[in-house]
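Aim 2 progress. For Guanylate kinase, the working sequence is reproduced below.
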Amino acid sequence: SFLPPLHPLPMAGPRPVVLSGPSGAGKSTLLKKLMKEYDSVFGFSVSHTTRNPRPGEVNGKDYHYVTREAMQAGIDNGEFIENAVFSGNMYGTSKAAVQDVQAKKLICILDIDMQGVRNIKHTDLNPIYISIQPPSLDVLEKRLRDRKTESEESLQRRLHAAKVDMELSKEPGMFDVVIINDHLDEAYVQLKEALLEVILKTERLKGAIPDFF
Ligand SMILES: Nc1nc2c(ncn2[C@@H]2O[C@H](COP(=O)(O)OP(=O)(O)O)[C@@H](O)[C@H]2O)c(=O)[nH]1
Ligand SMILES: Nc1ncnc2c1ncn2[C@@H]1O[C@H](COP(=O)(O)OP(=O)(O)O)[C@@H](O)[C@H]1O
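Predicted structure tokens for this construct:
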């Protein structure tokens, strides 16, 4: 005879989202718009970095700003899901960063570079992979210069990494969605379209079963 399971199957949590793409492609700009419109849906995975904070950046919100020694100790201690060196600085996603977001029942968004994408593919995180690309390298350079956050050396390193990123993002199977950020409003609509399913899923769950979240 049919017996129901003793425990209901756990509801599979919503898939996290990985945003990647060259420095200056517009990831932070798009992310901030998305988090503002859907603050009850998405939560940002706050990475650790050894780079200096830029004016306006907040420790614990944009990044956890740490020394190389502290970062290396955390890596050695197994506290990171992935870590990479980008433009001479260390960056990494801690297990706690992702758990903090998931504990709030929000969809976790990670802003990570191409090495991070490759490494996350070897974990069980199973995110949706989205690449934000600039219309061209020239436009990217102009945006990075206009942002006025980088030294000439840092800018050149980012442009070099951008060329590699732009090539790798074309590899079949690397990303689920590639968005060209030419006009910001159009890129934002495309990002929302790419995430429509997870947004609707979350909002439906919240509406149907208020106590679920
Ligand atoms: N692998 C990895 N990359 C990260 C992480 N956090 C940020 N990054 C990437 O590091 C690069 C540099 O980030 P940042 O210094 O904030 O410069 P920006 O992207 O130009 O604003 C970007 O490609 C980010 O996506 C992380 O935790 N892991
Ligand atoms: N579609 C766009 N058109 C023009 N400028 C943009 C556009 N998207 C972003 N920017 C600007 O380009 C710069 C880089 O964007 P940012 O979000 O910091 O990139 P990332 O986080 O990928 O490094 C910022 O100064 C931002 O205001």
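The chain is about 40% helix and 20% strand. This observation will guide construct design in the next reporting period.
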